[in-house]
Amino acid sequence: MEQDLKELLQSHGLKATPQRLIVLEYLIKHQTHPTAEQIHEDLENISLATVYNTLDKLVDSELVIAINDGSKRRYDYYGEPHYHVVNKTTGEIMNVDNFDFRPLMEAARKASGLNITGYKVEIYGVED
Ligand SMILES: [Zn+2]
């Protein structure tokens, strides 16, 4: 696992520092969209400032995305593309991967002339 994570970081242009390895591994294992504070509480040896700095680097590399649930910034491992359904009643964010976004990517490529490198989709709903 550790070697794979080192390669994953390096392939996204980041040096594999111990903090990056620990935070990335945490996000891969906890697909619950934690906040920086939650990550810091679980990883007691890393200061909150370091958690924030590490998350910023991981977000820059596009391995991790930041999601705003309306009140807090949450973090998510994004090595496997998926979309989010946000329950506005509870604030829960679900990972869902049951939809083929390739036609949308193709339409975006045609419209923009760009090489499309990724997507972020958030769908919102409330409970009855
Ligand atoms: Zn997610």
From TrEMBL:
Q: Which GO terms describe its biological process?
A: negative regulation of DNA-templated transcription; regulation of secondary metabolite biosynthetic process
Q: Which UniProt keywords apply?
A: DNA-binding, Repressor, Transcription, Transcription regulation, Zinc
Gene3D superfamilies with a match to the protein in the record? 3.30.1490.190, Winged helix-like DNA-binding domain superfamily/Winged helix DNA-binding domain
Q: Per the record, a Pfam family? A: FUR
Q: Which SUPFAM superfamilies match?
A: Winged helix' DNA-binding domain
Q: Which InterPro entries match?
A: FUR, Fur_C, WH-like_DNA-bd_sf, WH_DNA-bd_sf
| Gene Ontology molecular functions | DNA-binding transcription factor activity; transcription cis-regulatory region binding; zinc ion binding
* Record flagged with keyword Transcription: yes
Q: Does the keyword Zinc apply?
A: yes
Question: Which family, according to the similarity comment?
Answer: Belongs to the Fur family.
What is this protein identified as? Transcriptional repressor
Which species is this record about?
Answer: Lactococcus lactis subsp. lactis bv. diacetylactis
The organism's lineage is: Bacteria, Bacillati, Bacillota, Bacilli, Lactobacillales
